[in-house]
Design a protein that fits this description.
This is HIT family protein. InterPro entries: Histidine_triad_HIT, HIT-like, HIT-like_sf, HIT_Hint. By secondary structure, the protein is of the alpha+beta class. The protein has helices spanning 9-12, 54-75, 122-138; strands at 17-20, 24-28, 38-42, 79-83, 93-99. The chain has a 5-stranded antiparallel sheet. A hairpin with a 3-residue loop joins strand 1 and strand 2. The protein is globular, with a radius of gyration of 14 Å.
């Protein structure tokens, strides 16, 4: 679906790519105010969990959990936040957000009020993506960069 920003994210935001897994693609969020904040999105354009077969749904959830564990190991947050909304971009995608109790929005949701975006240089996105891939590898997760 060409008009879907999630369907084109992998091609549009090359520097933010982390890994292609069996059922999902994983990319950094452009705004890295919350270090490691990433998206896990289904390869196929679907809008609801129930659109997936049970086998694929279980695989997707296992991939979301693996990404969260890798983020936890890489960034040592106090909590990982997960969001699956799809109201603005109707393509199944999780926001996986490492949070620290010291962040200025704690304990509110990361989107509860505006904050100053942290935009990285290309090489910083690439390094952060490599760090997350390394931690996924330590968990035995295999995919393609």
């Amino acid at each position: 679906m060409n008009s879907c920003p999630i369907c084109t994210k992998w091609e549009d935001d090359v520097d933010q790519r982390i890994i292609e897994l069996e059922h999902t693609l994983v990319s950094l969020n452009r705004d890295q105010f919350f270090a490691g904040y990433c998206f896990v999105y289904t390869k196929d354009h679907v809008t609801e969990l129930f659109h997936l077969s049970e086998t694929v749904r279980n695989g997707v959830m296992a991939e979301v959990c693996a990404v969260a564990e890798a983020l936890h190991n890489a960034f040592s947050p106090d909590k990982i936040n997960y969001e699956l909304l799809g109201n603005m971009a109707p393509h199944m995608h999780w926001h996986v957000v490492p949070r620290r109790s010291s962040d200025p929005l704690w304990p509110r949701p990361h989107w509860s009020e505006p904050h100053q975006e942290l935009i990285l240089k290309s090489e910083e996105y690439l390094a952060r993506a490599e760090l997350i891939r390394t931690h996924l590898g330590k968990l035995g997760v295999k995919g393609r960069a």
